[in-house]
Design brief:
- This protein is of the alpha/beta class and about 280 residues long.
- The protein contains six helices and ten strands; from the N terminus they run E-E-E-E-H-E-H-E-H-E-E-H-E-H-H-E.
- A ten-stranded mixed β-sheet has the order 1-2-3-5-4-6-7-8-9-10, with helices on both faces.
- Helix 2 crosses helix 3.
Length: about 280
Amino acid sequence: MTTDAATAIERVSLTLVDDTRPTPANGSFDGAPHRTLETVVSYPVRVAGVVGPMPLVVFATGYGGDSMNWSGLTDHWVRAGYVVASPTFPLSCRDAPGGTSGSDLASQPGDVAFVTRQVLDRAAARGSELDGLVDADRVALAGKSFGAITVLEAGYCPAEQVPNIRAVISMTGMALLQGAQFESVDTPLLLEHGDEDALVPCSASQDVYERACSPKFFVTLHGEDHLSAFHGGSSPAEAVVVRTTIDFLDRYVAGEHDALTRLLRDGDVPGVATIVASP
């Protein structure tokens, strides 16, 4: 366990091994009969007098990433009172055996489901490193880019769906795996995308928004590319992403009804962002 004294965030590193699913061969790597997911669980240091489990967000990183490469953003969620569990995927990570590869993308929704179950099981186990930390009834998924593709599948494909999740956040993602049934699964959805994204076009998120059931929200970040608005920094666009993602989690995971008003306000900043909503 490590503690970031400056931000009052604690982190627990877990090695989670799924023995039921293999890791395929990749370049010089022969593959493995299991899947190993190095996962960092971050949570706010508890203030005296504040007790009880907290909501959980399972965050899927992008291609070539790891558990911590989007922590500049996700740490804002932690400071807002959420536990964030971030796995490193076996083959799409930067140091993957055999080289970083997107060939294993279809296995990643199952990784998200496995990590979610493992974190919830450990939070329910007396004496574990996560004992009592997480409220199993308040769970969300979030992802960036390759990770957004992953959580859209994990959230909306019946064969892959993580049970009982309350909300999904997709940042610069798209419906690539084709199993998601947005028209019939009504889990609340927030999409965020820059309209100058040259890697994944903003129209990809627009398509998902059009197909999705309500409640759904789409924040367009004007003049932003694939990366620029998502580091959790102090630019106007980064501030919009921080505020709107927390507002959305507060409304649909934490159950704060007033957060909807904040979400609609914070997603509409002249010259910076606009929001389309169907609450």
